[in-house]
Amino acid sequence: MHKTHLLCCVAAGQHMNSTLNTNCTIKALSFSFLVDGVFQIKELTIDSLQNILKWFRDHFRYTENKSKKEESHFSDMLSSAFSLQESSVESVFTYILVCLLRSIETVSIEVRLCYAINPVPLRPKNLILSDKQRERKNATKIKNKEDVVKKGDKVTDTILISSDDEDVIAEPYSKSSGKKQRLRQFWLEVYFPTGKRWVYVDPVNGKVDDVSDIEKHTCNPLLYVFAFDNKNYVSDVTKKYNQKWTEREFRVNRVNEQWLQETLH
Questions:
Q1: pLDDT score of 191
Q2: Domain named Rad4/PNGase transglutaminase-like fold: which ranges (predicted)?
Q3: Is 153 a member of any domain?
Q4: 17 is in which domain, residue-wise?
């Protein structure tokens, strides 16, 4: 079940990334914004990337409106977001910046769409528990859900999920001043040939090359982050964003590394 869910998510990521590269309407909408001088760059630098990100956040607005009805197909949502220059969906907001960067003609820019995936547990023990074990598990789950950790004005809810050897506490969302904050699933990376490295870009929060708090806003534990490049190749970049990737808990909750690499390539 874990592998199936994981592969479905990877396939969905490839489909989304492919659409960004091939959909004629989306490409036309992207080109229509490139007349601004901020996109007329001869060389990609951190400063020029930050200028583009600032322009993007000035001209496109991200509004977290959970009550907004979403279109049936994400390409329709993306076209609508381009026209309105705003989106209430994190993924769509990220797609727009990916499209704009990939459409720049004065310099070739390699952009990877990053997707944090949290599939069902690798060994979901709670599916085969006896009645008494299930009752104890549910009691523990309720207790942990009622335990609220308060730090200043920030309150974090916790949910119990099953892992290989022990129960791991996951944080599906956090509350700040009484407002729920969604977990981050999408961001992007831009390749800098001079330093031969991929630079993290967060369009929602306006951050460049700063991954210091990424784990606080993604699923916990962060088991999989996949990056989809201009040619729709997939790379596992989880180790870049999870500082605990060397720990046993990280390894036992993921699929076999050799199988994963062979499957992706």
A1: 96
A2: 171-264
A3: no
A4: 1-122+178-264
pTM: 0.76
Mean pLDDT of 144-163: 44
Distances (CA, A) of 199 to 15, 50, 187, 191: 23, 11, 11, 6
Tokens 């949502």 belong to which residue? 77
Look up the CATH number of the domain holding residue 115: 3.90.260.10
- Whether 145 is in a domain gets the answer no
Burial (CB < 10 A; 0-12, 13-18, 19+), residue 30, is: buried
Count of structural domains, the chain: 1
CA 163/CA 116 separation, integer angstroms: 18
DSSP 3-state of 228: strand
Q: Does 133 reside within a domain? A: no
Res. 28: pLDDT tops 90: yes
Give me 202's structure tokens: 């967060």
Residue 38 is given by DSSP the state G
Contact between 114 and 189 under an 8 Å Cβ cutoff? The reply is yes
Residue 166 domain flag:
no
Phi, psi of 196 (to 5 degrees): 50, 55
Q: How confident is the model at residue 149 (pLDDT cuts 50, 70, 90)?
A: very low
Element spanning 25, H or E:
helix 24-32
Give yes or no for a contact between 177 and 81, defined as CB atoms under 8 angstroms apart. Answer: no
